[in-house]
Amino acid sequence: MPSEKAKLNKALSANCVACNKPISTESAVSLTGIENGHHKQYTVCNACANGGWRPPGFVGMLSFRRE
Hints:
Structural class: alpha+beta
């Protein structure tokens, strides 16, 4: 759930691309994937990132973060 700061400023919140829930950019994870041959940033919540969701074309490692 977005923090109070993010609730007041819509520029500080985003939707998780995996579960479509609103998340605060303070606690979001940005993962790079490949779409149509180009790199693209995907914003996901910690729960989805820690649960194993990765964008198409993701190469790399992600350290687990506390929620």
